[in-house]
User: Fold this.
Amino acid sequence: MLSAIIASDYVSALSVQRGLHNSHLKTLIYKADFANDSVNNFLYNDGFLIYLNDPEDYHIDFCKRFKDLSPDKNVFILVNTENLKIVNELKEYVDTPIFLSPFNYRQIVFLYKRGLSVVSPPTLTCQVNRKTLKLDHSSRQLYIDGDPQMDLVNKEFLLLEFLLSNQGKVVSKVDILESVWDRNLLGSTATIEVHVSRLRKKLRNRLFFDPIKTIPCVGYIFE
Assistant:
């Protein structure tokens, strides 16, 4: 996959590139004149991270045209500004994930890579105690041994997806918060405990055992 950082400030783009690289996403940098450049100059890449430093109205127009012309591609917007009015306008007019500085690159890369895979909705499959669990992105359902077993609300689905993706590994509550919840809306670890408890109850009712184990003072493991 060829992913591009599009920015007018090359020095800032280098800083963003390093943050993404440290979280295992390789990118190329393209310098753009957001006021005058044609969107078509950049559309040959597979995914995009647009970096905006103190954006103005013409940045919104560029991002909107960019997203409209690449509906099937991953487009994330990274914004460095204290002007919440312009941020709210971006959110209103551009239908794509928007992240505010300081950036949580680990979360951005996790969501970005997941977004790339959603172009062709995949399924996530694993074996648990001789049962086959399949998580279907398009239906938001969990299948057990081929049979649909439960509908999952959004956070339950994302939580189970994260745990299944890390099956056999211990994940901390902070890891879950950063990967499943919006960084700008992070709550306490009690939020995690409540959602894990609800998910456990649903899984126990279908599997008749608990595949999620608590690791005291650390987090959880999906066995």
